[in-house]
Each structure stands twice: as structure tokens, then as C-alpha cells.
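Q: Predict the bound structure with TXD.
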Amino acid sequence: MSRKKIALIGGGQIGGVLTQLIAQRELGDVVLFDVVEDMPQGKTLDIAEASRIDSFDINLKGANSYSEIAGADLVIITAGLPRKPGMSRDDLLTTNAEIMKKVAEGVKANAPDAIVIIVSNPLDAMVTLFQKVSGFSAEKVFGQAGVLDSSRFSTFIAWELGVSVKDVNAMVLGGHGDTMVPLVRYANVNGIPVMEMLERKYNDKAKAKEVMSAMVERTKMAGGEVVKLLKTGSAFYSPASASIAMAEAILKDEKRLMPVCAYLNGEFGVDGYYVGVPAVLGEGGVEKVVELTLDEEEQKAMDVSVNAVKGLVADLQRLNYI
Ligand code: TXD
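A: Predicted complex:
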């Protein structure tokens, strides 16, 4: 079996960590593309020179030309500016739309059969733009947001309850913005509802609710919390890990159920938009969107989030990007 070829578009903070993680896991050969001259070549050389220490046997190449990504099986896109303190993800719309348009044209011309994971912000709008410009089928183009947002939520729950994060299952749906929807009712520790554990811990329903609301709020603002601390740039280790989990599910045809920014054809009452929903990821990309029952409050929160995504897509249309 020949090795898979993975093209990373954007050799910045996330692109660099992606390269290292792919190398350490030997997921495939990597081409790291960036518009900045020499930088991706420098990063791949640096990581390749750790191959003896980390014991990996793959080819790593830096590139400034799209011809180098020819025949890629998987493309992960992180090209675009990150947030500065005080900015929302949506503030990046026009700058990153310009970049994403060029990226979509480059990928379409050189890797027309690839599966594409978008990471650049504002996420839901960038996925939409890439799919429209490339014309790739919708199940082969999707975005990473929910895996990270859910991991953040799970981490906070584990800290609060004093249990291993490995036993926490919690999902965040909706758009990748301040309106994202952490699913409280479905959050559990090895099947035990988190709310029940909180109520037992505090022996007080109101207090349990208060603690959960604080974790939900922290999850929604978690990206901004890191931006504020870093001062230059946004989170990059955890977004890279989240993208690798998705890449692995595809490359190894794992059929993992994850929250994915996927194209909806009527599921969750949404038609023709990309939104974060549970989906099965395998070698075909998004192989299935999995629906679940939302109560009135959850549905309301989902509607608000979907409307925020619709607003961004309308902006892209108004600005003639799509
Ligand atoms: O969960 C998520 N989806 C995210 C997304 C979590 C955190 C950050 N997220 C977003 O990813 C962030 O808001 C940015 O839009 C992207 C990339 O974040 P990163 O931290 O890696 O940004 P960098 O370090 O600035 O890297 C961006 C690179 C940089 O090297 C530029 O030279 C390059 O993008 N760039 C381009 N590459 C290719 N083609 C074009 N046109 C281009 N323009 C800039």
C-alpha cells in the first residue's frame, strides 16, 4: 500500500504542529505549503531532523508552489490570519475570505480528488466559501471546530468533577462562534449524566446549574481566553490535535462519530448550510450526519447559532465571494 499524501495549506502555528503530529504518528507524507518563502521549507527541515529521535519514516517537504500538492489524498487548511486580543472570529471574514478563495483555486487545480478539512476562521463561512469556489462535493469538504470545542468542554468537566477526562463525553454543536451550543443534557461520565454528578457533589440543584453554566460560558469563550493570554495569535496546539483526530478518522476509515462542521440537507431543520453537527467520519469524508433530539431550549440555542452562520454566509454573498 502506498503512503498517503497530506497537503497542509498554511505553515503557521497550527500548520507546524500538524506537521509534527503527522510525522510522529506516521500518518502519511507531508507537503507544507505557505506563501511565505523558505519558512515551510525551514519548518519541515527542522521536524525531519528529529526523525531519528522520534523514529519516523515519512517524507516532509516545504513548498511555495501549489504544483507540489499534486495528488494529495487529504488537505488541511489553516491559511489565514488568527485573531488578536479583543477581536471576534467574525472580524477575520474579509481578510481570510481573500486568502481562502486563492487556496480553493489552488487545491482545485492540483488536488481535485482530495478530502479537505478547513480550520481557518471564521470557520463556518470559510468552509462554505471553499466548497463553493472549488465545487468539490459537500461530503468531502468540512470543518474542524466541534472536536476542539468539545474537548475544551470535556476538560472543564473533568477538572470540576475530579475524574479522568478519558471518561468524559460531551459535545458542542452549532457554529464556531460565541453562539456555539454545548450540549449539557447529553454530557456524561461513562454514561452517568454530568448534571446528576454535579447535583450529588453540591447537594443543591441551583448550585449545580450555576456551576454548569459557568463551564458552558468558559467553553464558549475558551478561544478568546487563550488569545488574551498569548497576546500574539490564537490557540494552536489543541486545534492541531483536533484536526489530527479528524484526519486519522479519514485516513484509517475509522467511522468515528465526531462533531463536524458539515453540510446539511435538511437535517436539524437546516438546508444548504454548513453547521457543527454529529457526523460519522471515514474514508469517504462525512459519511453520515447523525441527528438527535433537542429539547426546546437546545433547539432555540441551535437556531440562534445557525442564524449567526447564515449571517456570515449572507456577508460572503453581499461581498460577492460566493
Ligand atoms: O478550531 C479552529 N477551527 C481554530 C481556527 C482554532 C484556532 C485558530 N483557528 C484559525 O486557524 C485562526 O483564526 C486562523 O484563521 C487559522 C490559522 O491559525 P494559526 O495560529 O496557524 O495562524 P498563523 O500562525 O498566522 O498561520 C497562518 C499562516 C501563515 O503562515 C501565513 O503566511 C499563511 O497562513 N497564509 C497563507 N498560506 C497559504 N496561502 C495563502 N494565501 C496564505 N496567506 C497567509
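A: The first helix runs from residue 13 to 25.
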